[in-house]
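Researcher: I'd like a candidate sequence for this fold, 350 residues long. If you have to choose between options at a position, lean toward the conservative one.
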């Protein structure tokens, strides 16, 4: 892609830096351990750009590469972000429809693809986005054989499975944003109900990012206080009615935002950047993300499904899965969610 506004194109001499600054004496060459970090975002639509701008404002990487199939839109988005350079931490921003621009990425975040129209479910998008993933994943894996893949496009769990198969990567390096977003919506609604700060609410949604997601009531806590076990029996029954409404509201959230504004973007932007930080900075933080779930929580070993479980994330991807206590009902719901996804995968032409 033509690079607009390069110094040489504007008529500056290549050695302008030497004219303006005097090098210090006896400078050592850059240390080989000071490697630059690089994140690539595939798909410069609503979601891709929300993720890109959150990554930039949070100073998460040295280089940000954008890829999209529409060259003019891509160029426009790149320039628009570059023009904010005076207000942002220094990040080199690149863009091209050619996957070579993603070479040597630490994380590739895939957001390209069809999105739901009002009333459509995430699973309706599968066939359209499967075809795109066959174009997108192989070049990403070729240009960055050591990268982590973070899948956002929907249906995110099945597409994470597809990305795993198409990349040939070990499963710990292929992750879906999964219910990290649903859990944030859950925490927001619980915090509102309990009149506390959402960051003090510990509560997970697990399973499918979508209609069969599972709320883990039994492990919810606020500031370390377990919520349900703290209540008397009578109160717990009343509270469970409210909590069930909250769970339904979480599942409905995306549909409501899509009905109102046509798409969702800001919350997934923060969710993906939150995951990128834990991965790139080796934070060992726990996030509910979509991972290869076979063998965990009673999901049979022969079921190669990706769905969200609370996992510890670090520089090499998924480090471990947290052993949270699930009630029998929660475990049964999780297995049903796994079955829904597994049955869908059986129909795929990979
Ligand atoms: N997992 C989650 O929590 C969320 C997932 N999503 C999903 O993210 C995806 C993107 O949504 P939006 O950004 O709103 O859609 P959008 O339509 O605004 O953007 C999609 C972009 O993908 C690009 N694209 C299409 N084919 C491509 C290809 N072969 N290579 C490169 N780029 C290509 C398009 O040109 C477009 O710019 C959808 O599948 C949506 O359902 C959206 C919100 C939350
Ligand atoms: C669209 C979508 O998956 C979400 O906002 O949850």
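Model: Candidate sequence:
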């Amino acid at each position: 892609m033509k690079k607009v506004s390069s110094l040489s194109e504007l008529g500056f001499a290549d050695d302008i830096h030497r004219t303006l600054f005097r090098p210090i004496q006896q400078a050592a060459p850059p240390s080989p351990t000071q490697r630059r970090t690089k994140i690539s975002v595939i798909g410069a639509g609503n979601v891709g750009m929300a993720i890109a701008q959150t990554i930039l404002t949070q100073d998460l990487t040295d280089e940000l590469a954008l890829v999209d199939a529409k060259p003019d839109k891509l160029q426009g988005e790149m320039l628009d972000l570059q023009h904010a350079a005076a207000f942002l931490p220094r990040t080199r921003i690149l863009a091209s429809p050619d996957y070579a621009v993603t070479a040597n990425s630490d994380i590739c975040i895939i957001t390209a693809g069809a999105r739901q129209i009002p009333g459509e479910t995430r699973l309706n998008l599968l066939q359209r986005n499967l075809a795109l993933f066959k174009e997108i994943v192989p070049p990403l894996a070729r240009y960055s054989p050591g990268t982590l893949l973070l899948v956002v496009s929907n249906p995110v769990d099945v597409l994470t499975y597809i990305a795993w198969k198409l990349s040939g990567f070990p499963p710990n390096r292929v992750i879906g944003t999964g219910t990290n977003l649903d859990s944030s919506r859950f925490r927001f609604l619980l915090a509102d109900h309990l009149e506390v700060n959402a960051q003090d609410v510990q509560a997970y949604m697990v399973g499918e990012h979508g209609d069969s997601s599972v709320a883990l009531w039994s492990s919810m806590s606020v500031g370390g206080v377990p919520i349900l076990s703290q209540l008397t029996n009578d109160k717990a029954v009343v509270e469970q009615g409210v909590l069930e409404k909250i769970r339904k509201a979480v599942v409905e959230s995306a549909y409501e935002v899509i009905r109102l504004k046509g798409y969702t973007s800001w919350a997934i932007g923060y969710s993906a950047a939150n995951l990128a930080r834990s991965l790139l900075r080796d934070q060992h933080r726990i996030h509910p993300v979509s991972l290869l779930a076979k063998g965990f929580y009673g999901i049979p070993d022969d079921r190669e499904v990706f769905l969200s479980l609370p996992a510890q994330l670090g520089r090499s991807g998924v480090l471990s899965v947290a052993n949270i206590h699930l009630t029998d009902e929660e475990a049964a719901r999780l297995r049903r969610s796994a079955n829904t996804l597994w049955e869908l995968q059986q129909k795929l032409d990979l």
